[in-house]
Amino acid sequence: MEVPTRNVEITSSFWAQLRDSGRLKTIPALVKAQKESGHWDCLKWKEGHQPQPHPFWDSDVYKATEAACYFLMTHADEEMMRNVEEAVDNIRGAQHPDGYINSYYTVRGIEKRWTNLRDMHELYCIGHLIEACVAYETLTGSGRLLEPVMKVVQHIDSIFGSEPGKRRGYPGHQEIEIGLLRLYEMTKDPLLLQVAQYFILERGTRDEKDEIYFDKEAWARGNDPGDWLSFEFRPTYRMPRDYGYHRRCD
Question: Of 73, 103, 113, 208, which has the fewest Cβ atoms less than 10 A away?
């Protein structure tokens, strides 16, 4: 059984030193670097600002927010909490009316959203947003992040799935699946389990032309789908347990 973070006391001097280093040095330095580089403000980008958002910057904010929340569960820190609430404000302000959240496509062409799941990591970023939500709501119970997160999950469910009229897509970089399942454990909302199950089971399936979804979306963009690497040649659950792992260096 998982033990709540608040109930864990670290007594080892070795691990306590690492924990304190992360809390007192790593997280503050990470947030400072993100603010100086423009990553932190990507979700509230305005015309004329530089630099413009990068495809993966949203996830940087979400990861830092998640980590900060876990430290705050055991150690109060006013400045860290202010940064967390600022991030939540930015997330809420960046959400489109239909639930979509992604700074890159918001700034560089919303009409191209969901056209390149293989490379552009929209679902990956949202996966880290969901994990940040689990940490934030465990810390605060306020619902301030749960509300926009459930809205974006509803949006994703309206776009992707096996039902008629939906796209049979799935993330190029797996991450959203674990976020959905962790939030399901917290809320028991069946939609979260449904969407996670769809992504897990759909990944690597082939159509009557022996093509996976990434092939079809590449052809639609005018690209060669074969010029890439991936493990999508068969569903993940049909892979050998020791098949392996690869890391993309984009």
Answer: 208
